[in-house]
């Protein structure tokens, strides 16, 4: 009897948990084209204001790469009503935190405040959009900041992996250039070019504003209008990126890194953008191969055969094209060819056999857990709402994306592995220590 009661209680709690995960939101547009999404959650006195702009590393003149990432920093410089350097002082002085980040596809700014500071957050983001100060002092200051970031993040062991992948997997699409850009492009850029870039991409009609947390919907709507209606609509952003020719024969490449002593092997496949069903399946395949120490590749190459120091399969999601990449560091005398052959063996098994029901259920559990965790905080919810609207075109994926993963069968996994992960569809990159004479 106790066991039955416990089972009933567990089922009830499970049902409650699923229902509790539903994220309710309200959407509307201002006359200037700014899309606004509000999410009310009064369980804690916290609110987040965030803006995601539809501009990333792929945008702009290819002789001026890195502008979107540069603006991630530059738009903290100040505005007509915020003195230089004060933007980043005002937020902590009012009990808040902030950050920003840029990908190849978008730029995201956010502030988290006590809920009684909601109006301050809206004002700060409207100032960033309405009239930032873009002058030579700010450009010169942030140029040094970006150079230091490059030294810390990219000029370190294996810091050039993504650049090696991008430059070899893509030939014509702007994903071939690193998100941070080339520093010589930033050094050569004029102040007029920076101002033109801002006017081209940072209009309200090329952005989404998210306000989430302890808020009153009606009052928040009014405040949003008060602060953002004044912003003028920007030009329509038209993109017509060149299309990549499919890879049909194995390509070989070599990349060098002066900061490493142990070489690495990379095998990178160009795959569909993250909004496609196949991209979701590739997410599952990457987790099956290397999602933790119990995964197929880790157990085989690191634990059992002791041929690798590290092994990983990742699905790097991007809007236009994604990249599925295999990566391994050899242990001892193991050759790079051996590592690649051993990884290929596991992919071939996936192509020829269904994964076990146990492994399939494990994957479903992992992705359900990730989905629940992504919606467990106000910051996570705000980021998801912005991403699903701006990049996926479906805000309600915040509630139903898990259903896509739940619908993926073992047969789907086998079919997608066959479709995209054959050796003739990839670039094989030997990532080697750079010698003095090279």
Explained architecture:
- Keywords: Hydrolase, Metalloprotease, Protease, Signal, Zinc.
- Belongs to the peptidase M16 family.
- With 438 residues, this protein is an alpha+beta fold.
- It has 2 domains: 24-228, Metalloenzyme, LuxS/M16 peptidase-like (Cytochrome Bc1 Complex, Chain A, domain 1); 251-433, Cytochrome Bc1 Complex, Chain A, domain 1 (2-Layer Sandwich), CATH 3.30.830.
- It is built from 16 helices and 11 strands.
- The strands form 2 sheets. The protein has a 6-stranded mixed beta sheet, sandwiched between helices. Strands 7-11-8-10-9 form a 5-stranded mixed beta sheet, sandwiched between helices.
- A hairpin with a 5-residue loop joins strand 1 and strand 2.
- Helix 10 packs across helix 16 (410-420), helix 12 (336-352) crosses helix 16 (410-420) and helix 13 (357-374) runs antiparallel to helix 15 (397-406).
- The termini are far apart.
- The model is unreliable at 1-20 (pLDDT under 50).
**Mean pLDDT value:** 93
Number of structurally distinct domains: 2
CATH level-two architecture of the largest domain: 2-Layer Sandwich
Major β-sheet profile:
6 strands, mixed
Helix-strand string: HEEEHHEEHHHHHEHEEHHEEHHHHHE
N- to C-terminal separation? 75 Å
